Amino acid sequence: MESLYKTKTINTFEEYKRFSRVLMYKKRSIIIYALLAAFLILDGIVLDNMIFIVFAVVYPFVIWLLHNMQVKKVFKTNKALQNAEVNFEFYNDYFTETNEYGNTKLEYNKLHKIIETKTNFYLMIAKNQGFILVKENFPEGLEEFLRNIKIS
After folding, report:
1. pLDDT at 29
2. C-alpha span between 119 and 54 (Å, rounded)
3. What is the sign of the dihedral through the CA atoms of 116, 117, 120 and 122?
4. Which residues contact 101 (CB under 8 A, 6 or more apart)?
5. Residue 36 neighbours by CB under 8 Å, 6+ apart
6. Are the beta carbons of 8 and 15 closer than 8 angstroms?
7. If DSSP codes are grouped into helix, strand and coil, which group holds residue 120?
8. By C-alpha distance, which of 141, 72, 146 is closest to 108?
9. Domain segments of the chain: what residues?
10. Phi-psi region of 16 (alpha: psi -120 to 50; beta: other; left: phi over 0)
11. What pLDDT was estimated at residue 68?
């Protein structure tokens, strides 16, 4: 059977970093961090204690720094991930992923969800595991095809 669409992704550090940020910075997490910071700043003002205010300002930067260090460590220790070329072929009911280590066939109804950003699509097979697709490599029609996939 002939595929409907074909695309490829090179798993660079930048792509992996984008992917991990999408997983980390969910809307709910950002709202919780913002509420926590507002509460700490308010406490600092009411109690006249600068430690709360400093913590509210510094905490997000510390989390960001630790996250970046962890992402870099994971990417550098996974030799199979580094700069691997991954080819995808999309069919009506499933897609295939092929790289130098083998191939995978996955039906769309087995996906956990599909995440779209300005630059990428992520075909999630679990809450924190998925396939990275780079939009700039897409042939005409693939973007709309992925948007219309129904996940049960």
Report:
1. 64
2. 35
3. negative
4. 80
5. 56, 59
6. no
7. strand
8. 146
9. 5-12+79-147, 17-77
10. alpha
11. 81
Q: Enumerate residue ranges in the chain where pLDDT < 70.
A: 25-30, 152
Of 131, 12, 8, the closest CA to residue 82 belongs to: 12
Is the pTM of the predicted complex or chain greater than 0.85? no
Tokens of 77: 């220790």
Span between the terminal Cα atoms of the chain, in Å: 24
Cα–Cα distance measured from residue 28 to residue 142, given in angstroms and rounded to the nearest whole number: 29
Written as one letter, the residue type at 15 is: E
- Show the DSSP H helices in 25-92 as ranges: 27-46, 50-77
Distance CA 66, CA 58 (A): 12
Most distant CA atoms of the chain, gap in Å: 70
pLDDT value, residue 78 = 83
C-alpha torsion angle, residues 111, 112, 115, 120 (rounded to 10):
-40
86-to-16, 36, 58, 101, 132 alpha-carbon distances in Å: 13, 40, 39, 10, 9
Q: For the CA atoms of 134, 74, 72, 102, what is the dihedral angle to 10 degrees?
A: -30
